[in-house]
Write a structure and sequence with these properties.
Blueprint (H helix, E strand, L loop, with lengths): L1 E2 L4 H17 L3 E6 L17 H20 L7 E6 L3 H8 L6 E4 L13 H9 L4 E4 L4
Parallel strand pairs: 1-2, 2-3, 4-5
Helix pairs in contact: 3-4
Length: 138
């Protein structure tokens, strides 16, 4: 299982996860979590924004990037999941039966001063399977 958000670290994690799936003869499930800027839980609703269109665009881009990156190992079956859920909860729940959870060291919303982002920290503390953390590629 792999969690990605489009950050450099998560895209580097994709390569690592593909290699691991190929070595283990497994499948790779790629999960992306979407925060709906039109929902009541979003801190500041954005004026004149079609949140449905934004979500569709983000999901399409996620699937496109996942498909492109998966071509490096055409022998590894890759499935994608795009969910509207908090990443910490979605990753922990989705990885319950996983052999390995792979994450980048920090995502798009984490400041560079953090060694590990909050999603990665939560996964290391609460995941029911081993967690591999990768840095961004240089």
């Amino acid at each position: 299982m792999l969690g990605i958000d489009g950050s450099p670290a998560s895209l580097a994690a994709f390569d690592f996860a593909l290699d691991e799936a190929a070595l283990r003869g497994g499948i790779l499930t790629v999960l992306c979590c979407w925060a709906d800027c039109g929902s009541s839980s979003w801190p500041d609703p954005l004026p004149f924004v079609d949140s449905h269109a934004l979500r569709e665009g983000a999901e399409a881009r996620f699937r496109e990037v996942a498909s492109q990156l998966a071509r490096r190992h055409p022998d590894v079956p890759v499935t994608t999941e795009f969910v509207t859920e908090r990443p910490q909860r979605a990753l922990i729940d989705s990885a319950k039966d996983a052999t390995l959870l792979v994450l980048g060291n920090r995502g798009i919303e984490s400041p560079a001063c953090l060694l590990l982002g909050p999603v990665t920290q939560t996964a290391l503390l609460k995941a029911w399977c081993p967690v591999a953390v990768t840095p961004p590629s240089s």
